Amino acid sequence: MTEKEKRLADFCRCHHFDGVLLRRRANIAWLTDGADVHCDTSTPLGVAALLWSPRRKTVLCDAIEAPRMAEEEFGREWKVQSWPWSETPPPLPQGRWATDWPRDRIAPLRWSLTADEIRRYRALGRDAAEVLRSVMENILPGVTEHQIAGITGAMLRQRGILPYVTLVAADHRVDRYRHPIPTANRLRKKLMVVVCAQRHGLIVSLTRLAHFGKLPAQLRRKHQAVCHVDEVLHAATRPGARWCDILAEGLRAYRETGFGEEWLKHHQGGPTGYECRDFKATPREKRRVLERQAVAWNPSITGTKSEDTTLSDGEVLTAMPGWPLCGARPDILVR
């Protein structure tokens, strides 16, 4: 029995369940070390579900999905049970089954990463960072945000990475929107690219900015401030700390830099892993940081932002060696 199956078995024993029915893509990828059951990326649910107990491992799907599930996604220890696509699924076997939909009771089991997950996470972080670095160092003024998003997505796909979220803003749109989906707006001087990149179910989040020509003094001041906030958040993030207390340190740093109200304009991040954020850190979030937990803080001040994915021991998974720094955090690349 794997470490993850032991966690499930303990959960079932504690709550008197015979097993679990997993429908969420995040939980299925977690349990299987990366099985991909998506077809439509707009839904958190897979085109297959898993029925797991200490005595059985069954993949449930219709006949459309059965060949790929059996041949590409699941090992021999999993039995694929399918039915005609035009028919309703058969009932579950008798027993008391926990489920992760609509309420996800399984998510906390995946928050502390295994050694194998950390190895895969490091490789994903390195690849995603290399892609974003190449984009930011080589893109030229005149291209549209759509084109930048396309280049970024293609480079990620070449490495087997799904661009889960791609935000691109050029010039005035960096200042106006916290979630700037790409448009036909053309780059002139200032660029921000945000990616949430997924492989084997795991997700890293990172943001980088570039500027063509000398940085305006106000932008320099804002970026120094947001990097200071991010440094404070990183320093306060350690196993055992409450998320609300870490956030309080970040809010104090916002006030110290003279941008005390900016945190209200966007969330500051929180734990990550198989979701872009498992939950967001709020002033009332009293859960604690776990050992080997993935974290993605993303403080922002109008016109700039700082974001990387780390482990709760401080290791930065999306580091870019050689990228210019502002303190200990990535600076705006001046070209």
Spans of at least 5 consecutive residues with low confidence: none
Q: Can you give the mean pLDDT?
A: 98
Rg estimate, integer Å:
21 Å
What spatial order of strands do you see in the largest sheet?
4-3-2-1-5
Q: Span between N and C termini?
A: 53 Å
Number of strands: 16
- What oligomeric state best describes the polypeptide chains here? single chain
Q: What can be said about the biggest beta sheet?
A: 5 strands, mixed
Would you tell me the structural class of the helices and strands?
alpha+beta
Helicity level: 25-40%
Q: What series of H and E elements makes up the topology?
A: HEHEEHEEHHEHEEHHEEEEEEEE
Shape field: globular
The share of residues in extended strands comes to 15-25%
Q: What's the number of helices?
A: 8
Q: What are the SSEs and their pairings?
A:
Elements: H1 3-15, E1 19-24, H2 25-32, E2 45-53, E3 56-62, H3 66-73, E4 79-83, E5 97-99, H4 115-138, H5 145-158, E6 162-170, H6 172-176, E7 190-199, E8 202-211, H7 217-236, H8 243-256, E9 269-272, E10 294-297, E11 300-301, E12 304-305, E13 308-311, E14 325-326, E15 329-330, E16 333-334
